[in-house]
Design brief:
- This protein is an alpha/beta fold.
- It has a single domain, classed as Purple Acid Phosphatase, chain A, domain 2 (4-Layer Sandwich).
- The chain is built from nine helices and 17 strands.
- Strands 1, 2, 3, 4, 13, 14, 15, 16 and 17 form a nine-stranded mixed beta sheet that branches. A six-stranded mixed beta sheet has the order 6-7-9-10-12-11, covered by helices on one side. A two-stranded antiparallel ribbon has the order 5-8.
- Strand 11 and strand 12 form a beta hairpin.
- Helix 7 runs parallel beside helix 8.
- It is globular and about 65 Å long.
Length: 349
């Protein structure tokens, strides 16, 4: 800078020089390539049949502990980003609440256990959702939503029953659809309570619609012959159709025993997760599977099948090593880790 210039001009020149330097630094920073943050890793956990009525309902009432069935699993369930299961039996505002038999009516306060365990979505598309009639079905839908749990597979209209239950986590939207062999009023003309049925045309249409609203579609099916490892033909056809329509996974239940897992096309089918919270003693009914899917953003990165054992008082827990091997062998699996993407980190419990 020319020192012969007047002081005011020298100051103006110095300020101009500083501005040029700052601009150059700023341009340099802008030219550096920005590294996008890695996509979030999200875990979806799906369990099988949950019955909060009958004997366990009576025990919860007597003990005033409505989280009793989930005592050993609450932490595992709540740790997932989204937790899903099948609710067998409606919540009913008024008695009776049978402690035995095949009518499953559940006390409203039992929802506390589902909340404590972190359930986000529950299928109500099953053969017991209508056990309390219209009043209990409507109350259940409202009761679940009031406790921030989304019902799937049934509604007070055809549109509601077939609408996806959508949960968003870290910008990724997961849509859940649910169906059963025991459909009810499943027609577009119905105006009463509707339970979505096992229909190939319906699931293809519903999955396509859900994909317009969400990044990932997951389907639930309550179907199949009870107490057998053999997958029914109708079950297989429906599950494969759901995957071919664009679903990432299908979670099955109703046989009360776990069945095989299949990789079909670009998706995974858990034909039966078996029981989770349930009062039964028939061979195989006190074991089940948890389906755990890990996503990298909206992309599936890992698939696991975690064996569970159901103790007394309908309390599930993770199986130990020997129990796991026996449960996995019964459904034709050799490991809890079924698949992992090439760049995914190893599985962890």
């Amino acid at each position: 800078m020319d020192l012969r210039l007047p002081p005011r001009k020298r100051l103006r020149g110095a300020l101009w020089l500083v501005c040029l330097v700052l601009a150059a630094v700023s341009c340099g920073k802008q030219s550096e390539p920005s590294i996008p943050p890695p996509p979030p890793r999200l875990r979806i956990l799906a369990v099988g049949d949950i019955l909060l009525g009958r004997k366990i309902g009576m025990l919860m009432e007597q003990s005033q502990n409505f989280t009793l069935p989930f005592r050993s699993m609450a932490q595992e369930l709540a740790a997932a980003d989204v937790t899903f299961g099948n609710l067998e039996g409606p919540f009913c505002e008024k008695p009776p609440y049978p402690s035995a038999g095949l009518v499953f009516r559940v006390r409203p306060r039992a929802v506390a256990g589902l909340v404590a365990a972190g359930f986000d979505v529950l299928s109500v598309a099953n053969n017991h959702f209508g056990d309390g009639g219209r009043a209990c079905m409507q109350f259940t839908l409202e009761h679940l939503r009031a406790h921030s749990i989304l019902p799937a597979g049934a509604g007070m209209s055809f549109e509601d029953a077939h609408a996806p239950a959508i949960v968003e986590r870290h910008g990724v939207k997961f849509a859940f659809l649910a169906y059963t062999y025991a459909d009810r009023n499943d027609s577009s003309e119905s105006c009463g309570p509707v339970i979505a049925g096992r229909n190939l045309a319906s699931v293809k249409r519903d999955v396509a619609t859900a994909l317009q609203k969400a990044d990932v579609v997951l389907v639930s099916l309550h179907d199949g012959a009870e107490y057998t490892r053999v997958v029914a033909r109708e079950t297989r056809e429906f599950c494969r159709a759901a995957i071919e329509a664009g679903a990432t996974a299908v979670f099955g239940h109703h046989p009360h025993v776990p069945q095989r897992v299949e990789n079909h096309g670009n998706g995974w089918i858990f034909y039966s997760l078996g029981n989770f919270v349930f009062q039964q003693n028939t061979p195989g009914t006190r074991t089940g599977l948890l389906a755990r899917l890990t996503f990298s953003g909206p992309t599936l990165a890992q698939v696991e099948a975690l064996p569970v054992v159901i103790e007394d008082h309908s309390q599930p827990r993770l199986a130990n090593l020997q129990e796991s091997q026996e449960i996995l062998q019964a459904v034709g699996l050799s490991s809890t880790l079924l698949w992992t993407a090439p760049d995914a980190p190893p599985a962890s419990r």
